[in-house]
Amino acid sequence: MKKNPPKGSGKIRNYIARNPLMGKGGAHVKAKSGKRFLNKQKMRKEVREWRGSRDTYSLVVAVRFILPLTLAGF
After folding, report:
1. What one-character DSSP code corresponds to residue 22?
2. How far is CA 14 from CA 11, 17, 19, 22, 23, in A?
3. Do the beta carbons of residue 54 and residue 60 sit within 8 Å?
4. pTM of the model
């Protein structure tokens, strides 16, 4: 039968890990401000794409309907 050494005696093996300030650490996660910034970037990109698609649509309408009318003399 093995004898276990007495706990709590002896020197601390990793004194840096036992530092109370180290308890504040944790997983590395994005800051809330970074998440907000990414959402803002995504929204702006979608708005640009939406506006771009509308501009092309208006150009298509102009070419299909307005241009033939002007060529016909109306």
Report:
1. G
2. 9, 6, 9, 12, 14
3. no
4. 0.41
